Amino acid sequence: VWLIRSIGWEKRFAYGRGWLLSDWRASWSLGSWLLAGNVIGIVQAYALHWLLAVLLDVEATGAFAAIATLAGMANPLVIGLGNFLMPAIAHAYAAQGAEGIWRLALRATGWLAAALVVICLLAAAAGGQALTLLYGARFGGHSAAFTLLVVGAAAAALDTAAEHALRTLNKTRSVFIANLLALLTTLALAAWLVPRHGVIGAAGSMLAGNVMGSIARWSVFCRVLDSRLPIAGGSAIHDFASNLQSGDGGPCE
């Protein structure tokens, strides 16, 4: 406040004490679900570490942590895309409405999917060698778990555009529910798979949870846009899907 007043910027801002409560309520209606969703996402990311420690041992926990760290090699790409998409989707919605979001989300997801396919293929082909090189020969046997974690990370990343679009459309509660569904799926499968299959069971549980969360976000996203992109004779999403074979991208063209 002192800095703003000292350089004379207070004249450019309008503020009042009476606005504090109303602005807080408006922000909290959106931010509370964002906060809850992020907390659920963090719990999902680290719950398996604790579950492995409880059900198995510290060695299995360390092995899972090591391969999970390497499996996050695509995170800089995903985070960078997310930093670009959030304002881009908001701008597309302001300029072109729901159709602009739909077009941008599909394009971004298509390019991201192409990059992630390459990363998954590399993980499947050279994951064991990479683990051995970085962590030693004892980790080379976790190549299958490593591949599952990479594919799981890719599944989670593919809903980046849908998640940011839901936030722009003020559907943050839906994002929270999708995150909760992913967490519950992960924990339910892990409780059954980890005692039987160890680290690879944990990796499979994470993959299933991420796939479930991604499907949930895209389903809600398509349902929301379906109500905002009416097309004569059918819905926008149905029209888009039916026209793929003929080369017409529906609202994406």
Mean pLDDT: 82
Order of helices and strands: HHHHHHHHHH
Q: Based on CA inertia axes, which overall geometry fits?
A: globular
- Computed over alpha carbons, the radius of gyration is 22 Å
The share of residues in helices is over 70%
- Helix/strand-derived category reads mainly alpha
Annotation field: number of helices: 10
User: Spans with pLDDT under 50 lasting ≥5 residues?
Assistant: 231-238, 240-253
Distance from first to last alpha carbon: 48 Å
Q: State the total count of DSSP E strands.
A: 0
Strand content: under 5%
How does the major sheet shape up? Answer: none
Structure commentary:
This protein is an all-alpha fold and 253 residues long. The protein is built from 10 helices and no strands. It has helices at residues 2-6, 19-55, 58-71, 75-96, 98-135, 143-157, 160-168, 172-197, 199-228, 236-243. The longest helix has 38 residues, at 98-135. The radius of gyration is 22 Å and the shape is globular.
Layout of SSEs?
Layout: H1 2-6, H2 19-55, H3 58-71, H4 75-96, H5 98-135, H6 143-157, H7 160-168, H8 172-197, H9 199-228, H10 236-243
Summary?
The chain is mostly helical.
Quick tags:
single chain; 253 residues; mainly alpha; 0% strand; globular; disordered C terminus
